[in-house]
Amino acid sequence: MKEDNAILSKLPERQLLDNDLYKFTMMWFIMTHFPDAIVRYEFVDRKNHKYPAGLGRILKKRIETFKNIKLSKQHRDAFQKKCSYLPNLFFDFLEGYRLDPTEVSIFQENDGRLRVNIEGYWYRTVLWEIILMSEISEINNLMSGEKPTISLIDRHERNIKKATLLKMNAVQCVDFGTRRRESFANQKSVISDFMMYGGDYFIGTSNVLFGIEHGIKIIGTYAHEVISGVAALFGYSHANKHMMEKWVETFGGNLGIALTDTFGLDAFLADFDAKYARLFDGVRHDSGDPKKFADKVIEHYKKLGIDPMSKTIVFSDGLNIDTAIELAEYCRGKIKVSFGIGTHLTNDIPGITPLNIVIKLFMINGKPVIKLSDVEGKHVGDSETIIVVKKMINYKPL
């Protein structure tokens, strides 16, 4: 159809490394420990957004072209140089890896709601999450009829103001904005502006491609999905401990930021004993009251005889510049901090409404997979399993 081709022609050529680092680190982790695991992911729109008619059809056409994407030798060498903790075997595999669009099923309801499932071997399907979310976001922006109400020059001015504020307040920031970006071009522009005006306080990006192209640090460890998957396979009582042990076994002392809220902070801290608290460089906050979180983490380190100022909290829950500055001031002198900021960097454009979307792991080897955040409303997965696990681990929101 002409209309479909008009939209597709406006999209940039997709590259394999236009993805977040943690998807690749988890890929190797999964290959190492769970090479036979079969999984299903599901797309969730938290606001039940009604997508423009035909978006699902265009998305199918778009991802069909991804089966020909491959890692270039140049990108392989650059990625390997920046992330030498990943073994040569992984990069050999990645050079031969091809995305398989048949792993993805897409259906759009008559009312506009979008259904997306991903099924297959875990190590193969793990890369789809960020790819699909960023594509859905950009295609939706092209089709929605919404238009930016400010010029490109004004966008740059907004980026400059944000970067300057962070620098003036000595707040370290990382771009976490790939998944819900307004567009590929806008994320690229944001990173360029923050590099120029954020100084040493813009410390990197989660996006591997942009990290390579801009010569900045690529940052990321792991996400909820691997903790949830490990829990479904090995039990929920000490899921975080099982996960951390396997992560350390895989990467040694590298990639040492632990995610805390897959089953609530209390369950995490119960497993975050002196061994892991010393092995890991710090923790990441992704739900719940961030100040309460900081207080509990700082107190936990003190109880273990660890100086909190030797550790880091990475805040990453729906941040903007003002909240990052406020949290940095709250934690100053208590514990080191940095901030992973996503949508507020790459899709903060007047006239454009950002999507509130996620893709979550729902099944592994026929077993339901769940996530309990530190906020009741952000739980994901089978409702009966959620009820059982909450009782099992004595779950309490932060």
Describe this structure in words.
This protein is of the alpha/beta class and 398 residues long. Helices cover 46% and strands 14% of the residues. The chain has 18 helices and eleven strands. The protein has helices at residues 2-8, 21-33, 55-64, 73-82, 88-96, 122-125, 128-143, 152-168, 184-197, 208-214, 224-234, 239-251, 265-271, 274-279, 290-303, 321-331, 343-346, 383-392, and strands spanning 38-45, 104-108, 114-121, 173-175, 202-205, 257-259, 282-285, 312-315, 336-341, 357-364, 367-368. The strands form two sheets. It has a six-stranded parallel β-sheet with strand order 5-4-9-8-7-6. The protein has a five-stranded antiparallel β-sheet with strand order 2-3-1-10-11. The radius of gyration is 20 Å and the shape is globular. The termini are far apart.
What are the key terms here?
398 residues, alpha/beta, six-stranded parallel β-sheet, five-stranded antiparallel β-sheet, 18 helices, 11 strands, globular
What is the element layout, followed by pairings?
Blueprint: H1 2-8, H2 21-33, E1 38-45, H3 55-64, H4 73-82, H5 88-96, E2 104-108, E3 114-121, H6 122-125, H7 128-143, H8 152-168, E4 173-175, H9 184-197, E5 202-205, H10 208-214, H11 224-234, H12 239-251, E6 257-259, H13 265-271, H14 274-279, E7 282-285, H15 290-303, E8 312-315, H16 321-331, E9 336-341, H17 343-346, E10 357-364, E11 367-368, H18 383-392
Parallel strand pairs: 4-5, 4-9, 6-7, 7-8, 8-9
Antiparallel strand pairs: 1-3, 1-10, 2-3, 10-11
Helix pairs in contact: 1-3, 3-7, 8-9, 11-12
